[in-house]
Amino acid sequence: MKKIIGIFMMVGLLALAACASPVAKEIERYVNEDLKPLADMEDEVIAEYDSVIGDNHTDDYETYTHIDEVVLPKYRDFIDKLEAIKLETPEVREVHETYISAANKQFNAFGKILSALEEGDFAIIEEANEMLEEARRGMRDYQAQLESLAKENGVELVDEEEE
């Protein structure tokens, strides 16, 4: 699973401050001040999850314990911080809500994985994987919405990896 914020963490917003719209100014603040500090937090949680699934899976007990004691609490903290972001413009708020929704879907999928491990039910694992795919689609939708809104408002988003 790839990092979510980090994939599209944008810096170097090029909006002319004097004539930037309120939406443009908020996009710049949102990306550079609100999201940037959360990128490392999200990367860490996803790395923790990845450390016990797929090729890194050693046994169900280890996976269950790690998700329950490490991944879920850290991801809940991440979502709490994500939900605490205060936005003024409806346009940016709407885009941010897409992100919150996808993050919550991913959190719930992690919880469903715990249920599957408790019950030893592979059908529940399949449901959790479908939820994770929905969350990934939500993250892609969020990224596309943010990029579109930035473009509409004359803000150029530059991926930090390109700098």
Describe the structure.
- This is Lipoprotein.
- Keywords: Coiled coil, Signal.
- The protein has helices at residues 22-50, 60-83, 90-119, 122-152; strands spanning 10-11, 158-159.
- It is mostly helical.
- The chain has one domain (6-157).
- Strands 1-2 form a two-stranded antiparallel ribbon.
- The longest helix is centred in the C-terminal third of the chain and has 31 residues, at 122-152.
- It is elongated and about 55 Å long.
- Mean pLDDT is 88; it is low at 1-18.
Write the layout of secondary structure elements.
Layout: E1 10-11, H1 22-50, H2 60-83, H3 90-119, H4 122-152, E2 158-159
Antiparallel strand pairs: 1-2
Helix pairs in contact: 1-2, 2-3, 3-4
Helix content bin: 55-70%
The chain-level mean pLDDT equals 88
Which outline best applies?
elongated
Give helix and strand order, one letter per element, not per position. Answer: EHHHHE
Task: Tell how many strands the DSSP assignment holds.
Answer: 2
Number of domains: 1
